[in-house]
Amino acid sequence: MIALKVKTQYRSEFVDITGDVAKAVRKIGISDGIVLIYCPHTTAGITINENADPSVLTDINLKTSKFIDHNDPDYRHGEGNSDSHIKSSFFGASETVIIERGKLVLGTWQGIFFAEFDGPRNREIFLKIIPG
Amino acid sequence: MIALKVKTQYRSEFVDITGDVAKAVRKIGISDGIVLIYCPHTTAGITINENADPSVLTDINLKTSKFIDHNDPDYRHGEGNSDSHIKSSFFGASETVIIERGKLVLGTWQGIFFAEFDGPRNREIFLKIIPG
Amino acid sequence: MIALKVKTQYRSEFVDITGDVAKAVRKIGISDGIVLIYCPHTTAGITINENADPSVLTDINLKTSKFIDHNDPDYRHGEGNSDSHIKSSFFGASETVIIERGKLVLGTWQGIFFAEFDGPRNREIFLKIIPG
């Protein structure tokens, strides 16, 4: 297992970690298999989406925060981050990506993102490579 | 493949299965790899979230049921559980967790949950361990 | 890695790819393991849900389009498909299914679907089989 560090700057933010994951895979030197990109936090997640126009990520954040809003008076959890926990489950704790000839197999417009929903914080990501 | 049984008690409920998954992994005796936790039902799912304050799970359930409500008059499916199917796709059919030295690698506050959306029912969970 | 082709006919559509995935797994001739079903597009995804009554898929599409609507005036991305990107992250880029004795292990009512959110288009799906 490999642990990567991510420092987030805003409450809600998508941090492009594609380069870090690709580098870690290259370093391990495996040719073919899969890599699990895992988030060990319950107010964040991992997602794959467009890495070209940043307004896509802005829109994902904006829209999600409309139906999973920060301040619903019905929330019972006392830390004020129920929305972050809900988003964490919806975006998901991990993504799995194919490795071929030592490289990540991603679509043309795909990037891998650490999805922060309760930052700014110092966060970790776990990578696990399975050859095959 | 290992099959576990889960008995749910409410229509919508998050059942902590972390201990059962950890026990099954220990029993197999594998040191390193990944475990796929898979839900074979279409009105339930698997999710990872906070296992400390139960109000987090209450809030996830409450909020999700606001924008994916039970009784939308536009639903066409005749069984009255369209909301359960929609939630199933959003929470997802599986999660994958890293195994290291025979133990699940989870974040401090993370638990693995069977997410019931159309209970109470007798349910199954499939586990598949891949060494690596 | 195996690449499958999918041709979608509508803007939003769930295409049942269970048979194609099962056939590819049979062709590889692997007995036990897992198969990753991966979508390399950022306005589509992979989901597992009911394959019996098609009104379930209609309801998933209808409901999701209510809270992730096509024409929110706050969207900033200029291509008019922000809703498609958001749905892509929510349904997820992949699913993983267990293989036992050469066959996919699915629940009674489960099918694997390519989830199109910005069609009609010619799309690809990547499969990666990990024995174990």
Give the CA-based shape of chain A. elongated
Q: Going across the biggest sheet of chain A, name each strand in turn.
A: 1-8-3-5-6
Distance between the termini of chain A: 16 Å
- Main interface by residue count: A-B, 34 and 33 residues
Q: Which percent bin holds the helix content of chain A?
A: 25-40%
Low-pLDDT segments of chain A: none
| Backbone structural class of chain A | alpha+beta
The SSE order of chain A reads: EEHEEHHEEEE
Indicate the proportion of strand residues of chain A.
35-45%
Question: What does this protein structure show overall?
Answer:
Helices cover 26% and strands 38% of the residues of chain A. Chain A has helices spanning 18-28, 55-67, 82-91; strands spanning 2-7, 13-16, 33-38, 44-50, 94-100, 103-105, 110-116, 122-131. The model of chain A has no long low-confidence stretch (mean pLDDT 97). Chain A is elongated, with a radius of gyration of 16 Å. Chain A has one domain: YjbQ-like (Jelly Rolls, Sandwich). Chain A contains three helices and eight strands. In chain A, the strands form two sheets. In chain A, strands 1-8-3-5-6 form a five-stranded antiparallel β-sheet. A three-stranded antiparallel β-sheet of chain A has the order 2-7-4, with helices on both faces. The first copy, chain A, is α+β, with helices and mostly antiparallel strands. Chains A and B meet through strand 3, helix 3 and strand 8 of A and strand 4, helix 2 and strand 5 of B.
